[in-house]
Amino acid sequence: MSDAIKQVAKYYDERTKNSDNIDAAGQWQPKELVSEICQEISKKIGIKHDDRVLEIGCGSGVLGDHIIKNISFYVGVDISFMMLKKFLELPINENKPNLIQSTADEIPILNNFFSIIILNSITMYFPNKEYLKKTLREIERVACPSATIFIGENSVPERYYYEFAWFQNLGIVGQTFAKPYIRIRKWLAKTSPRLAGKWKNAYMEISPQFIIKYFTEKGDVSVSDAAAYTIRKRVFGKNCKGNRRMDFIIRLCKSKSNV
Questions:
Q1: Fewer CB within 10 A of the terminal residue: the chain, N end or C end?
Q2: Cis omega (within 30 of 0) for bond into 193
Q3: Per the omega criterion (within 30 degrees of 0), is the bond before 208 cis?
Q4: What does the alpha-carbon distance between residue 116 and residue 139 come to, in Å, rounded to a whole number?
Q5: Do residues 67 and 42 make contact, with C-beta atoms less than 8 angstroms apart?
Q6: How much is the pLDDT for 259?
Q7: Which DSSP letter does residue 239 get?
């Protein structure tokens, strides 16, 4: 496990202290919309009762708690032991979650087993593109030939500015001038560590073009606003604040994989 991934595990181990499972996870806000967001994700994926689901980065079980009640088999993987412990403390009825402490790029699971694989709001913690590629290869290995892959809540280059709270509070004119500033600051941070400042910890981005190209001969890719943003916009309308990340849904196709 790399130092960067160890830091993420340590960070989330600390977050579980004196927090419920939603606060520990962090991104599921406001709390009153959690159920709707989970339903939106399930609807996007098209989850069915007989599905076997693997959730990579399951954390404290916010999404898993919703999914596990509607499917036949569930496995959750996370690097944080304390987050998995928080998941197990949830009052889930009949189906207890099968949980594994592991990194995303080395999943201790048999080949070709899961009909659905979920990565929701974790790609920004991947240290580099190689780690992402290795994770995608692991996902393909454990996926059924016609599985659905959901990669949710992804930071993308053209929408990156929406990640910053100060940007969200600017008016239209202010945001227009802020966008090139953010692009310049990001470029400087990548150019030299001395110029990075607070930008050195900027979230990883996933280009839709990269995902489409990666899966072009393996399945069909759809790209849309993240489920959480969709629900918040529906509820709050013009007053909606928060990031504008994107969801990728990949429907693997056996005929394409044999090309």
A1: C
A2: no
A3: no
A4: 10
A5: yes
A6: 42
A7: G
- CA dist 67 and 160 (Å) reads 29
What is d(CA 49, CA 233) in angstroms, rounded to the nearest whole number? 29
Cβ atoms 101, 38 nearer than 8 A: no
Q: Do 208 and 248 form a contact (C-beta atoms < 8 A)?
A: yes
152 token code pair: 């949710």
3-state percent breakdown (helix, strand, coil) of the chain, nearest 5? 50, 20, 30
Chain centre to alpha carbon of residue 165: 20
pLDDT at 255: 57
pLDDT in tens, 90-123: 886 566 789 999 999 999 998 999 999 999 999 9
Which of 102, 99, 104, 35 lies closest to 70 in space, CA to CA?
Answer: 35
Q: Which residues pair with 224 in a beta bridge?
A: 247
- What is the rounded radius of gyration, in angstroms, for the C-alpha atoms of the chain? 18
Which domains does the chain show, CATH number per domain?
3-155+205-257 (3.40.50.150), 157-202 (no CATH)
Beta strands in 57-197, from DSSP E residues, in sequence order: 73-78, 98-101, 114-120, 143-154
**82: alpha, beta or left, given left = phi > 0 and alpha = psi -120 to 50?**
alpha
